[in-house]
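Sync notes, pocket subgroup
Present: LS, DG
LS reminded everyone that the earlier model was apo-only. Rerun requested with magnesium ion included. Inputs:
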Amino acid sequence: MLTAEQTNRWLERFAEKIEANKDYLSELDGIIGDGDHGNNMARGIEEMRKKLQAADPANGSEVLKNASVALLSKIGGAAGPLYGTALLEMSKQMTEADDLSAVVKAGLDGVQKRGKAEEGEKTMVDVFAPVYRELEAGNLTVEAVEDAVEATRELKATKGRASYLGERSIGELDPGAVSIGYLFISLIEEGLTDV
Amino acid sequence: MSDIGIIISSHVADLAHGVYRMLKEAAPEVSITYAGGTDDDDIGSSFEKIQAAIEANESSHCLAFYDLGSAKMTMEMAIDMSDKKIELMDVSFIEGAYTAASLLSGGATYNNVMEQLAPLNIK
Ligand SMILES: Nc1ncnc2c1ncn2[C@@H]1O[C@H](COP(=O)(O)OP(=O)(O)OP(=O)(O)O)[C@@H](O)[C@H]1O
Ligand SMILES: [Mg+2]
């Protein structure tokens, strides 16, 4: 299992990326959705930071659980229950086994149970699923995550707000795919994919 | 009168309140509670408000109606964490909720309400 310190570092790096790209995420969401994804995520990570700083967790699982509660209660859009479920399921799986790919798989399953999206529907699932496969195969890289994010550009949205746009949702990146990409890039950059 | 309550969840506080008022006029004795908007009353969903709407409902068996995306998913998470029996209805928001409210107010049975809601299933 990741230690509390490692998990805190991972999520803090993620928070920094969200903060730095808040306007960009909202811009993307403005093109195919309602333009609030950056603000939603920023609200969520602000609460997450508060919760994580106040907590005294024994291990990585507890850190993820605290983060999930914060994101669920403060994001305020579809990303709230989706990130909330993902982190909660990852937190549970972390107590079961040491295998990080199983942890990511549990998060992916949670997101799919909550949002009912399959791959190819232009959502965060289109990054989550390939990340899991690469991790399982032992070669998850930043480039692989970026490629998965980029691949959402040509997809037509059939879930979430963007689905109301039909064909017009093609041509730009999915904002939730970009933000979840930051989560996994942060994991790699902190060197936690092979601990 | 009925033992079944109604819960409304919308992205917009005014919309949730408006639907509540419309239903309440037709069904003054059905327990109806609602949640709309984010914690700051922006457009979106609030887990806390939805939980409060579930708690505040006088019925332990409720039908829940929602407009879009996060109003549904956030409700689902709150349902998972609640002891009450809450059924999420994938029907057209206003027609569905209004149908349920008027039927329940008129003393319709649970099965009867479900039958009438079935053709409104659009989600
Ligand atoms: N059903 C779903 N399954 C998986 N991911 C989803 C689903 N619906 C939306 N998403 C993801 O959420 C992102 C949008 O998050 P955001 O916080 O902007 O929510 P929103 O769509 O504005 O929420 P709301 O449902 O309140 O309108 C999308 O870019 C997509 O990646
Ligand atoms: Mg949005």
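DG: The helical segments of chain B are 13-26, 47-56, 69-80, 93-105, 110-117.
LS: Chain B touches chain A through 16 residues (CB under 8 Å).
Action: DG to write up.
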